[in-house]
Amino acid sequence: HYYPDQLEHLSSCKSPQQMFGAISKTYYAQKMGLDPEDIVCVSVMPCTAKKFEIDRDDQNAAGVPDVDISITTRELARLIRKLGIDFRSLPDEGFDDPLGESTGAGVIFGATGGVMEAALRTAVETLTGEELANVEFQEIRGTQGIKEAVYNVAGMNVKVAVASGLSNARNIMDKIRNGEADYHFVEIMCCPGGCVNGGGQPQVHADVRNYEDIKAARAKALYDNDKAKSIRKSHENPSIRKLYEEFLGEPGSEKAHHILHTSYVKRSIN
Ligand code: SF4
Questions:
Q1: Sign of CA dihedral 4, 10, 13, 17
Q2: In terms of residue numbers, what domain contains 87?
């Protein structure tokens, strides 16, 4: 639970971009015998806000910035075009190990409700000790600005809320502040529809945008990709299990907290 006074100063995990950077400069550096100073971490993100994030003063788990350069997906597409690379003729290849494995839970982070669904897949199995019959939480999918659901997990009614877009985020925050809602778990994405509709994503001409729900089409691509994955839950990712066994210890350990967590403070616009 977050209570009203906590809404001014939230402790949270870092963003996926920063967590990857932090792990690459600590765990990966140690495993490969590299000096973190010699690693340059470049992120490709749907988000322009990530460019600000790399300079925040608590994003340097190894004593050097977790991420060195953050470019948007739109910038990457421009670079590919500018260099004359025919992307479609390139052969497919896997990601490099030891951090090359991904799951469907990671893929759906890009759609509003996806982070919540990924967390629920793990939380439900952890709390019940049983395998989920169905890993898809349909009630929190879709592009509506606010979604609410109650799930009975191990005898508890877990109340969840998902908001995307800042006016919807305000609506949820006001409800919590005023004591009108007592959610156990809230997911907020600044961009309407989530990161699939982020400020760094390819722009779509109004001729198309006026007739197609682009964020819904992009979210569908993520959910289809999730469905096709052999592993769909984060806690079953062999790379993540190994990372905890070999390096971080237990989820929530002091080391995990130091490397993967940050806090957010209220900022003035002026
Ligand atoms: S929702 Fe928007 S602002 Fe938030 S991380 Fe995704 S792209 Fe960035």
A1: positive
A2: 14-99+237-270
